[in-house]
Amino acid sequence: MDKIPILKLGEFLLVTVQVDMHDRLAMTLQDDLTERIVASHARGVLIDISALDIVDSFIGRMLANIAAMSAILDAQTVVVGMRPAVAITLVELGLSLPGVRTALNVEKGMELLRARMREVEPGQTAEGQAAYGEGRVQQADGVE
Amino acid sequence: MAWSETLPLRSSEDVVTVRQRVRMAADREGFRLVDQTKIVTAASEIARNTVIYGGGGSATIEGVEKNGRRGVRITFEDNGPGIADIELAMKDGWTSGAGLGLGLSGAKRLSNEFEIVSAPGKGTRVTLTRWR
Amino acid sequence: MAQTSTVIPEALLKHEASLLSDWVAKQGKTGPELHKAAREFLGAFREGAQSGSLDSIDGAAWEHAREVLTDFSIEQSRQGVSAVEVATFILSLKEPLFALLQRLYSQQPEIVAREVWNATRAIDQFALHTTSVALKTREELIARQQSEMLELSTPVVKLWDGVLALPLIGTLDSERTQVVMENLLEEIVRSGAGVAIIDITGVPTVDTLVAQHLLKTVAAARLMGAECIISGIRPQIAATIVHLGVDLGDVTTKATLADAFRIALYRNGLQVTARAARNGGAPEPARG
Predict the structure, then answer these.
(1) B64 lies in which domain range?
(2) Contacts of residue C181 in chain A, CB cutoff 8 Å?
(3) Could you report the per-residue pLDDT of C254-274, keeping only the tens digit for each?
(4) Cβ–Cβ gap B100/A86 under 8 Å
(5) Nearest residue to C246 via CA among C214, C218, C216, C208
């Protein structure tokens, strides 16, 4: 059976969903991912869904499950790249994916994860701002 | 003008095929992207129910017209155990399985017209229509 | 009945050229397009009358004739010709056709009477057909212009890197709000902006549906990884929202666009400080 590839990027895992997933494939991804988190000691997971043209309640539930399970395994999950039409439809469907962090693209998702790790692990200094803004602190210095 | 096609719904791969065919139908009827996404998502929810709870069945996709408005209608039919309490099944969060319980109610919100006919032992027929 | 006894196809076949020039001469204006349409239609009309009945133009026999007229009507109405003018084009075939029948069968008035009636029925139906096509084309044009206007009237502007604003002005109806919100979300993806401000200072009233669209947009943006701030909520609108029982939940709202902008900058790790605090209140520089 086909699988969705999971890429390791340093401390993070990156999953790029390229195909219209059938339900079993989604379940396989969920299992594969939790195993990989443990095996690779990953601290964060990025799930890029920018290629998905729909997310229904099943896939929505899978995303929420992955986020919840990875949190238990001490890894942050960020879902990135949800398309506007998909987001509007999910809202209408009644799904708000509580507990799932989101970012506009992979780069921003990565910033979010890094900021998160600085927050959780003291030692590196980061100003006590909202997680979102932290990734931008450097740029902020440049502008001022 | 009027056209229709019937697809089998036996496996989760069939659900993907139905999604793709509904997308093509909505595109052919000139739906905007957001409206396409809504009807495809609604169809996906019901198609999954047909496979999981109905024990398989079929989906009929057709182009329809009313008062000069074009639309897409999908009729899902199965010969499964049926639904005893439709009102309860339509409630947000209610599920007999492992789902989120948003299948029926969510699909209804994503459609302009929604009809469900079911009785215990008589199977289930769900009809979704969305206008352009 | 009329099908077997009509002499019209024969008359058309023999006198097509003269009928065509008489018909075209009836038109107020002429041109290659009009001439071509008239010629094609006469040919198709003859075909139709040969194989089909003049009672109804719905059948397959008349398909070609309907097509010729449909294309012509669409073309004409796109050029701004009115539905009445397009219908007049086809109705004006009656006079030269009747004159022709009169000439050919001057000795047999009963044939003239019958054929005039036959031709009238068919031509009237074709006139109705062109009118309906012309009106439909117009409606489509208007619908397209309306949607273009919707997009024009609601520009999404960039206030800063990572900060978008959507200043809404005028009455929001449900459809307009929907289109506007979709544009905003598309623009968020395009620009990669993490914060978008929806400013409703210029909106006189908000009803339940519009309030719900606003909330759904905020929720959708959040799913995409962006934050929306709603600013410029006037006291009456705040009261309406409370009366309607709409729960703004944890949506960030600010009284003014300026307040919202300040928050948006802060979310981006930026803040505005007075120059005096930094470089001793230098005189106004070229760039503030």
Answers:
(1) 4-131
(2) 88
(3) 999 999 999 999 998 898 888
(4) no
(5) C208
Cβ contact, residue pair A94, B109, below 8 Å: yes
pLDDT digits (tens, 9 = 90+) for A47-66: 999 999 999 999 999 999 99
Q: Does A92 touch chain B (CB under 8 A)?
A: yes
Q: Which of C161, C181, C224 sits opposite A102 (nearest CB)?
A: C224
Yes or no, beta carbons of B34 and A93 under 8 Å apart: no
Residue C70 CB-density burial (10 A; 0-12 exposed, 13-18 middle, 19+ buried): middle
Query: Min CA distance, C136 vs chain A (Å)?
Result: 30
For A6-105, the fitting CATH number among 3.10.290.10, 3.40.250.10, 3.30.750.24, 3.40.50.1820 is: 3.30.750.24
- Kindly list the domain boundaries of chain A, sorted by start residue: 6-105
CATH number, domain with residue B12 = 3.30.565.10
Determine the 3-state secondary structure of A44 from DSSP.
strand
Compute the nearest-CA separation of A130 from chain C (Å): 7
Residue whose tokens read 């993490």: C194
Alpha helices, DSSP H, located in chain C: 2-5, 8-26, 32-51, 63-78, 83-91, 94-104, 109-152, 174-191, 208-224, 235-244, 257-267, 275-279
Contacts of C162 in chain A (CB under 8 A): 136
Checking ipTM against 0.90, whether it exceeds it is no
- Asked if residue C280 has pLDDT above 60, the reply is no
Going along chain C from its start, the domains and CATH numbers come out as: 2-150 (1.10.490), 157-276 (3.30.750.24)
In degrees rounded to 5, what are phi and psi of residue B64? -130, 165
